[in-house]
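Changelog-adjacent note: as of this version, every example in the card shows the full chain rather than a window. The one below runs 304 residues end to end.
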Amino acid sequence: MSPLHQAEPAAMAGADWETVPRKHVGRWVAAVVVVLVVAWFAQSFANAQIEWSVVREYLAAPVLLKGLVLTLVLTVVAMVLGIVLGVVVAVMRLSKNPITSGVAWVYVWIFRGTPVYLQLLMWFNLALIFPVVSIPGIYTGRTVELVTPFVAAALGLGINQGAYTSEVVRAGILSVDEGQLEAARAIGMTRLKALRRIVLPQAMRVIIPPVGNETISMLKTTSLASAVGVTEIVLEAQHIYFVNNRIMELLIVCAIWYLAAVSVLSALQFYLERHYARGATSRALPPTPLQKLRAAVLRQKAGA
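Full-length structure tokens:
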């Protein structure tokens, strides 16, 4: 190597390099565009013909609060039914018995393949093909008296949800290493006990996020229950604006309550995910909002 080439690394090592921050031009352009769009939307709503006093007036209207409570109750009932059915059908799908797994597959195929709106109407009109419900020794009566609008909505939403939840649970069970189940069977556990004590607790890390999203989706899907006469919050709002013609104001009230309920459910989902992520060694637990606030305050004090 020539003396000239030998001197170059030494000169480069001794040079005082200046660090120039990268100019993120595209990022700033995108930020300006977003701010302009948000400002346009805000100005449009400020100049819109919306009576915000009407929104404030009906925000705590007893009839709308009653509809909100019914919406929440229907969401809970439908999700409980959907989760129970989902776990049972997922275990059936994974069974080595071809009849059991076949029946579970047909259930998922039917209830995922037809619209939930159609299913609600079919449950509501069940009395047309089964006028009497008879359970020997337990119950005998007219179907129309048993399947009320609320029961029809709960059955329709819950059974439909069970088909989707079963696929989520099945994916969660399959995500657990098969050796866990084999080890449990080796120490004398039955298959169902091993699923309940060993596999499902570990699968919850995979199951909770999509089931949380399904719960939030269910909260909004309950608005379809008005098709069978369930007076949830949207139907109650319709009853009001058919009289006073304040359509957008009443719909905005519904939107506010839906956003509030979804915010609460999102917070619950976050803490559930954090709880079941404690056993994961690959990544740290996500910080809670309080921890984020504390960290921001400490950074602010350190900067000062």
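Structural remarks: The radius of gyration is 28 Å.
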